[in-house]
Design goal:
This protein is mainly alpha-helical. The chain has 17 helices and five strands. It is globular, with a radius of gyration of 23 Å.
């Protein structure tokens, strides 16, 4: 029986490897036939400097059609390598990342051929800032699931955080109060999730969806009844300005992207560091992971399982609420109906793609943020792609990544399973 099972695993691995290699080769063929042979005459110019920088980085000019053909040929070769060789995990990830990067670069060459220079720094800046609510939402989900409670309610936490931040900052005239209120509102949804999931053993996935629908309806109703009639007093909070880190912000390319943004980006850095260190390098994190893997054994050695799960969900809600506050007082400066637009679900997908690790989740969130920023850039440049397809881009990336590239992942062993104290 073990020989048969091993044979089946090898066949499944071979089939998956062949399909993935064929997919990469198909992307390369699209680069060659669509972006290379179909490119307009002229060069694609990429700009790596922004106004006001002390050090100027020269523009990069590439022949659009020829570059896309070369990039596509490389993708075809990588696809053949992926399908024909038994690569290790790291090598597979490098190949996947390389094929995606080559495809994006070929696409940008095709779009920018003969147009004005494309500011790469601006594109990466937008990608990073758009990923802020995704990163914070993913950290929220990670904290809950490491303690074995599934948090589908990230979407609702983002939305209620955005609403509370806009109202509090508008009414009080203080942005920091909006930030705190948004965080507390997200924490309140975390409390509701914890009570019903842990105390009353409600199905965690169904409960999360119900909370999302509840928040969507509640904020929509209050928006119509309160924010629209009193726009100037309840929905005009303003936006945090940028904070430029002296010295670091002057580093070419890297500086403007990572060290010239508003306070939410620096909060995200701090949250990421605290979650990474806390979950994997502290006694607290060891107890949390024990609860997520084997709650009965954890209870046996004196760890309070119920309390740990409550605490994790509330902490996660507070973090997701900050991500929601970014949507209003960190970005657009006003609340709109359903403005989270499914980002909570994307954050959950980022956490899964990142294999329940903080830095893995951040990498996935950055990928989705880049897809969103790229969709906006393509629209501005007038890419001959239907607008509906462009709007679908971030969600298509989610489907492709989770369904096709994540592969087999291992969640915490007790994830989603209710715990009844004996």
């Amino acid at each position: 029986m073990s020989v048969v099972a091993a044979t089946r695993r090898r066949v499944a691995t071979l089939d998956r490897r062949t399909v993935a290699g064929a997919f990469f080769a198909a992307l390369g063929a699209l680069d060659i036939l669509g972006f290379g042979l179909g490119a307009h005459a002229g060069d694609a110019v990429f700009r790596f400097s922004v106004g006001g920088e002390s050090a100027h980085v020269p523009d990069l000019s590439l022949p659009a059609g020829t570059t896309a053909i070369v990039l596509g040929s490389l993708s075809v070769a990588l696809g053949a390598l992926y399908a024909g060789w038994q690569l290790g995990r790291t090598a597979r990830r490098v190949v996947i990342a390389a094929v995606m990067a080559l495809f994006i670069l070929a696409l940008l060459c095709w779009v920018d051929a003969g147009n004005s220079p494309l500011n790469i720094v601006g594109l990466l800046q937008s990608s990073l800032t758009r990923s802020i609510p995704l990163v914070l939402g993913a950290m929220s989900g990670l904290l809950g699931e490491r303690a074995a409670v599934i948090n589908i309610a990230i979407e609702g936490q983002l939305l209620i955080g955005a609403f509370a931040a806009a109202v509090a900052a508008s009414a009080a005239g203080m942005l920091w109060l909006g930030l705190i209120s948004g965080s507390l509102a997200g924490g309140l949804i975390g409390v509701l999730l914890a009570v019903f999931a842990i105390r009353y053993l409600v199905d965690q996935i169904v409960l999360g969806v119900v909370l999302n629908v509840f928040v969507l309806g509640l904020t929509g109703y209050l928006y119509d009844r309160a924010l629209v009639p009193y726009q100037t007093t309840l929905n005009s909070p303003g936006v945090y300005g940028t904070i430029r880190v002296p010295g670091l912000a002057d580093i070419p390319i890297i500086g403007p992207i990572f060290f010239d943004s508003n306070v939410f980006l620096y909060i995200t850095y701090a949250v990421l560091l605290l979650v990474q260190v806390g979950v994997f390098h502290t006694r607290w994190g060891l107890r949390v992971r024990a609860v997520g893997e084997h709650p009965v054994a954890a209870e046996t050695v004196g760890i309070r399982v119920i309390y740990t799960r409550y605490r994790q969900l509330v902490l996660g809600g507070l973090i997701a609420g900050i991500g929601g506050a970014y949507l209003t007082i960190g970005s657009v400066g006003a609340f709109g109906k359903g403005m989270s637009s499914g980002q909570g679900y994307i954050a959950l997908a980022a956490m899964i793609f990142g294999r329940w690790t903080p830095f893995g989740a951040v990498g996935a969130a950055l990928l989705f943020g880049f897809a969103s920023a790229l969709q906006n850039i393509l629209s501005i440049l007038g890419a001959p792609i239907p607008s509906d397809i462009l709007l679908m881009t971030p969600y298509l990336v989610v489907i492709l990544v989770v369904a096709g590239l994540v592969g087999r992942v291992r969640m915490p062993a007790a994830d989603g399973k209710p715990y009844i104290k004996s």
